[in-house]
Design brief:
The complex is a heterotrimer of chains A (496), B (613) and C (120). Chain A has 496 residues and is mostly helical. Chain A is built from 20 helices and 2 strands. Chain A has helices at 7-26, 30-51, 78-98, 109-128, 132-150, 158-187, 192-198, 204-221, 230-237, 240-265, 271-291, 296-315, 320-349, 362-365, 367-380, 387-401, 405-431, 445-463, 466-480, 482-489, and strands spanning 59-62, 73-76. Chain B is mainly α and 613 residues long. Helices cover 72% and strands 3% of the residues of chain B. Chain B contains 23 helices and 4 strands. Chain C is mostly helical and 120 residues long. Chain C contains 3 helices and no strands. Chain C is elongated, with a radius of gyration of 20 Å. The mean pLDDT of chain C is 85. The chains are: A mainly alpha (496), B mainly alpha (613), C mainly alpha (120). The interface between B and C is medium-sized, with 11 and 13 residues.
């Protein structure tokens, strides 16, 4: 289609984000409607582009007419296209969910949707861009809008969470910027494909310093231990749909950047071993902390960190099987965690303290939301026939293929912990007597629609995973084949 | 359409229909459940083509389903016991809440078991295994009692077992490049010793856990007694047999054939220890449900011993016992459920003398107890005889003594069970008790009839066992319809014994009844004579209380050693560790920033060793 | 003189970065932490400009005065990046100060050690 152009992904949300207050001046309901139209449109074009993508021929767009390496380019390939499609799909669902979320006390929808659109534009930008400094800019757009969204509710401790997030986030941006500076000093270019070619000649010592800086800067976004102190606070204080978009967009763009940098741009020996160790530590600390949480959202946040750790471990094998598993886990984490956060939005909305023990017997009074939460919990711990199972199975097969038996044992032991805390919640939801009269906030019809779509995806992929495996395989091949990425972006350059 | 796929679809569809039926109203739901409970076995016995296979490739994994004789043998347990339990459940669960969830989970666990038994590859085996696990978890916590303790314990142990299997599966895949069971069996001989032990023992761990073998049994007493009894009969009767099914092919197909019978022997020893300890625990239970739960563990111990020894006779004994156990434990749990529903309690110190009120339930329980205790002429005797014989020919005399000790001690709890609930004097508060509804009685009676028939004609079952054992590598297993021959050449015809016993029994019963009517005097339960002791009103002087007090005193040292305690301590220790670990998230934003910088410094300092430039 | 200037610029940049880091990590006052982050940013920006500077280079503008002559220009890219980075840094500082105001209103303190309702 003519209008299908990756530029829209970034330009359209950015533009509408700033015009939204203006639309509000014209006619108030437009504030809610316009973002939906935009998200629907970009979701449509991303599906359109992604499904019609010719294998091995990514769409490369040159911005402002400057050919790379001078101008900034966008690369819509099998891998980045997959992540973008995931993000736009989730963005649309988050909009559907939050269209009339909490009618009372949610009159700031102007700010909310503006920030949400910035977040979406930023995370799509991170994924699409082919320029390393541009990636930094989009990371910062994502980060700043996330600070705003975290601090969205005035009543809670949200400012505290946002400030911690900001403190760590600005350190992250400093390190990324420093890394970019050092890299630029060495290779004299900012284009990722060109860097990939020229990076081979960098002094290994300098290269490792750059790698460490990237590791820390992007690791903060990707929720890597020990730099993930902000995660539980931000996830638990942000509004429910925002936590869902953090899991689906912020974390995804962080891990995408990490993977893209270390797989394509900067090849450093030993970085994957480091990633493996940090991934394992992330899983262990996150899941153990999640086990002892008393608040639902905080528990989900720690569990989210654990999932990200698992994704890091999967990517650290540097094999096709590992990347495939990592992509599958990314997909699962985005879909399932979003469902859990969306469901928990209404579950905790009805309780004052937001504690897990306040949820006794909610299966009776909020049957749909509880069912969705239960489904998400079943899926995320990897029970068949839900999509989480296939991700975990592929992940373990990949681990075994790398002969890392102790990692399998470790992941599975930690998974037992995960089972325990999720099933504790399910037990409370369904098999406990309700405490006393609680003020119930039934989910609105659009929230039900959004959650149902996610649930259908989870069950559909769970029963028939081949719905997505083809695309995952293509994305794997794209990420694993560094030379063709370079060739597609810069036809004149090639590795050696 | 492929009959295997259709079978699975029927069960899954039945689950959904029952769910929605019960969401609409109870009557419609019950009718649906009843029809589903009839259709499933009828379809299985008449329409399923056991030579058919299904193969499909999902997400790069090759899945294949198809029955072999060994799987078919276990499927028979599932297909006979579960529909009966479903029909029983209609009566037992009448007017309970959340019936939709109950039948949905019930049917899904049947789906899981059916799937396990037709899986020819590890992926589908694991998928169905997990479906079985989560659906049974939902039933374990169904009544909401002890959700934190029992439910979580069950889930933790199930997850441990399942994940052990999963680990074995991916390692097998790594070594053979295939997920098929058959490929594993053939490749097993060529593995290194480490891989053999690692994969085999991890698989065994998963299976042994479901069959509640000694150090892994702690979930079982709570789970068996907390679950609605209608499901417990399947839980203990059929679901635990999935563990036996797996142990059978791991121990016999792999280790015994690879000349590593030591693994089987260890398992057999564990089974024997389980049998002894669980029996002793069962004796001192006051709650009939708990008693049966421990008794189940003990019986599973025998079965595991039989499988673990791994000779032709012992495996046959184990499998025979497995089938019988499904039948008699099915009856007993159903009977306890009937008592629970009719009398309101299963505490043996409270309930007593229900024999007049619930004669059919008593009859079914009596038959089941006879089978359980291994009293001739019923099947339990034959199975135990075979087990002893195999142990003796194998030279495991100590194990014979243990099994013998445990089955003798089993008489104590058998008697206590019958006496506690049904015999003795009936308290006036149970005057209103009536016999359970036919929906509950008929399944029990049918199962006890099955026990009687197999007592007279063990060959009915042995035929299928012999056929099933060909898949374990035992060909030409000899069996006869009613005549049992031992290795020393003696033979015994069970038909005659059965008839003789029945005649004597009936005559004795008539004699008792006649005497009972003539010479009995009515005594109230409060008519107690004490020799000088002062009895306080709150003292429970029921005869069933402290039934085996002296015996308990003798066994005190053994009973004191509760493995449960160690697990609890371990769990507490872990929680303390977790609490300690999460302190690194101090809540101070600056500390987090310090972590980042510290991490940076550490990486920079060690960059030489990390990146190796 | 030239060398002195080069070292001076690099030295100042690193000094500013360390100073900012020190303030962000050690000072307890929220406002001081924000100032620290800002100083850290400034140091980094200075470093950027210093890296892009070439001795005796002119401004990277193609004006008639330089076209066709053999003039060395400084690298324009880092300067362009710094402009962007400054804008971003400004945005972050603004958000941070807004948060500080809200935190002060809620907790009546600007000591970061006393603001930890969310922990573990």
């Amino acid at each position: 289609m003519v209008i299908s152009d990756p530029v829209y992904f970034i330009a359209l949300p950015l533009l509408t984000a700033f015009l939204l207050p203006l639309f509000g001046k014209i006619y108030k309901p437009l504030i809610g409607i316009i973002p939906g139209l935009v998200f629907a449109f970009i979701a449509y074009i991303s599906f359109d582009l992604y499904l019609n993508l010719v294998p091995g021929k990514p769409i490369v767009i040159q911005l402002a007419g400057w050919a790379p390496p001078w101008g900034i380019n966008l690369v819509f390939s099998e891998f980045s296209g997959f992540v973008v499609t995931l993000i736009t799909f989730l963005a649309f669902l988050v909009w559907v969910y939050s269209y009339n979320f909490k009618k009372v006390g949610f009159d700031n929808s102007k700010k909310y949707f503006t920030l949400l659109m910035l977040l979406v534009a930023g995370s799509i930008g991170v994924v699409l861009t082919g320029d390393i400094f541009n990636m930094f800019v989009f990371l910062e757009i994502t980060a700043i809008s996330s600070y705003g969204l975290t601090a969205f509710y005035k009543g809670r401790d949200s400012a505290e969470a946002a400030f911690k997030f900001l403190l760590i986030g600005s350190l992250s941006s400093t390190f990324i910027l420093l890394a970019i500076l050092l890299l630029y000093k060495q290779v004299g270019t900012l284009n990722m494909a060109e860097i990939a070619v020229k990076a081979q000649s960098i002094d290994p010592k300098m290269k490792s310093i750059i790698a460490i800086l990237f590791m820390i800067g992007l690791g903060i976004e990707a929720e890597m231990f020990p730099m993930n102190g902000w995660v539980p606070d931000a996830y638990s204080q942000a509004p429910g749909p925002v936590a869902a978009s953090f899991a689906g967009m912020l974390a995804k763009s962080g891990i995408y950047a990490l993977v893209r940098v270390f797989y394509t741009v900067l090849e450093v020996d030993g970085i994957f071993d480091l990633l493996l160790i940090m991934g394992i530590l992330t899983i262990i600390f996150a899941e153990f902390s999640a086990m002892r949480q008393t608040r639902l959202r905080r528990m989900l946040a720690y569990s989210s960190i654990g999932q990200m750790g698992l994704i890091m471990v999967a990517f650290s094998f540097n094999t096709k099987a590992g990347i495939f598993a990592g992509l599958f886990l990314m997909f699962n984490h985005a879909i399932i965690k979003s469902l859990l956060f969306l469901a928990s939005g209404f579950l905790t909305y009805s309780t004052k303290q937001k504690k897990i023990r306040d949820l006794d017997g909610f299966g009776k009074i909020m049957p749909f939301t509880s069912l969705m939460f239960g489904l998400g919990a079943f899926a995320i711990v990897g029970l068949p026939p839900f999509s989480g199972f296939w991700g975990k199975l592929n992940m373990l097969v990949a681990t075994a293929d790398s002969n890392l038996y102790f990692v399998i044992a470790l992941i599975l032991l930690v998974a037992v912990v995960e089972v325990v805390y999720y099933f504790k919640v399910i037990g409370r939801l369904y098999f406990r007597q309700q405490h006393k009269e609680v003020e119930v906030h039934k989910p609105t019809w659009n929230a039900i629609a959004a959650m149902s779509v996610l649930a259908i995806v989870i069950i559909g992929v769970g029963i028939y995973p081949d719905l997505i495996t083809d695309y995952l395989t293509k994305a794997t091949n794209e990420l694993f084949d560094k030379a063709s990425y370079i060739h597609n972006v810069l036809p004149n350059l090639s590795l050696n | 359409m492929n009959s295997l796929v259709l079978l699975l679809l029927i069960i899954a569809g039945g689950a959904l229909l029952s769910y929605f039926g019960h969401r609409i109203n109870q009557l419609l739901g019950n009718i649906t459940v009843f029809i589903v409970a009839l259709i499933i076995p009828i379809y299985w016995f008449t329409q399923v083509d056991f030579t058919e296979t299904v193969s499909l490739t999902i997400s790069g994994f090759h899945l294949e389903w198809g029955y072999n004789m060994y799987g078919k043998l276990f499927s028979m347990i599932v297909m006979i016991l579960s529909p009966l339990a479903l029909i029983y459940a209609i009566g037992y669960m009448k007017d309970q809440k959340k019936l939709a969830t109950f039948y949905f989970s019930f049917l899904f666990s049947i789906l899981g078991m059916t799937g396990i038994l037709m899986s020819r590859d590890f992926v589908s085996l694991f998928i169905f295994w997990e479906i079985m696990t989560w659906s049974s978890y939902l039933l374990v916590i169904f009544f909401g009692k002890d959700v934190e303790k029992t439910g979580i314990k069950y889930m933790v142990f199930s997850a441990l077992g399942a994940y052990a299997m999963l680990m074995a599966i991916v390692i097998i895949n790594n070594n053979t490049g295939s997920m098929m069971l058959a490929d594993y069996f053939t490749a097993f001989g060529g593995f290194s010793l480490q891989t053999k032990l690692l994969t085999g023992i991890l698989l065994m761990f998963g299976f042994a856990l479901k069959s509640a073998v000694m150090p892994l049994h702690v979930w079982a007493p709570g789970a068996y007694s907390n679950t609605p009894m209608a499901y417990t009969s399947v839980f203990s009767g059929a679901l635990s047999k999935m563990g036996i099914y797996g142990l059978g092919f791991v121990v016999v197909n792999l280790f015994a054939h690879a000349n590593m019978s030591i693994v089987g022997d260890v398992l057999a020893w564990l089974g024997a220890i389980t049998a002894v300890l669980a029996t002793f625990s069962a004796i001192f239970q006051d709650d009939a449900k708990k008693l049966l739960a421990y008794s189940s563990i003990a019986q599973l111990g025998y079965i595991v011993t039989g499988i673990g020894i791994g000779t032709e006779l012992s495996v046959m004994a184990g499998l025979y016992l497995a089938i019988l156990h499904a039948a008699f434990k099915g009856v007993l749990f159903m009977a306890v459920g009937a008592v629970e529903r009719q009398a309101g309690s299963t505490d043996m110190t409270v309930v007593s003398g229900l024999v007049r009120k619930m004669p059919f339930t008593f009859f079914a329980s009596l038959i089941a107890i006879i089978a359980l205790a291994g009293i001739p002429p019923l099947g339990g005797f034959v199975a135990k005889w075979m087990l002893y014989e195999s142990l003796i020919t194998n030279g495991n005399f100590l194990m014979v003594i243990m099994i013998f000790l445990s089955s003798t001690a089993a008489f104590l709890y058998c008697y206590k069970f019958l006496f506690g609930l049904f015999l003795g004097q009936q308290e006036p508060e149970f005057d209103h008790v009536k016999e359970a509804s036919p929906l509950m009685v008929v399944p029990m009676i049918l199962l006890s009839l099955f026990l009687m028939v197999t007592g007279a004609y063990p060959g009915i079952v042995l035929k299928y066992i012999a056929a099933g054992m060909t898949n374990l590598g035992f060909h030409d297993v000899s069996w006869q319809m009613s005549v049992l021959t031992n290795t020393w050449g003696d033979s015994v015809n069970f038909q005659h014994i059965f008839l003789a016993v029945v005649v004597v029994f009936v005559a004795f019963l008539i004699f008792l009844t006649w005497r009972g009517y003539k010479h009995s005097t009515k005594v109230s339960t409060k008519d107690i004579s004490v020799s000088g002791e002062m009895i306080k009103p709150e003292d429970n002087m029921t005869y069933s209380k402290d039934f085996y007090k002296p015996f308990e005193r003798v066994l005190q040292p053994i009973l004191k050693w509760k493995i449960n305690k160690y697990y609890d301590e371990f769990g507490k220790g872990l929680e303390a560790l977790f609490d300690f670990m999460r302190r690194i998230y101090t809540g101070n934003g600056q500390t987090y920033a310090v972590y980042v910088i510290t991490f940076l410094v550490i990486l920079l300092v060690f960059s030489k060793s990390i990146f190796g430039y | 003189m030239q060398e002195f200037l080069t070292y001076g610029i690099y030295g100042t940049a690193f000094f500013l970065m360390l100073l900012g880091l020190y303030a962000a990590l050690v000072k307890k006052n929220l406002v001081k932490i924000v100032i620290g982050l800002s100083v850290l940013d400034s140091g980094l920006h200075l470093l950027f400009v210093a890296v892009g500077y070439i001795s005796n280079g002119t401004a990277p503008i193609f004006s008639p005065a330089v076209v066709g002559k053999n003039v060395v220009m400084v690298d324009p890219v880092p300067q362009a990046l710094v402009l962007t980075a400054i804008v971003i840094g400004f945005g972050v500082t603004a958000v941070a100060l807004a948060l500080v105001v809200r935190l002060y209103r809620k907790h009546n303190t600007t000591n970061i050690d006393e603001i930890k309702n969310l922990k573990w």
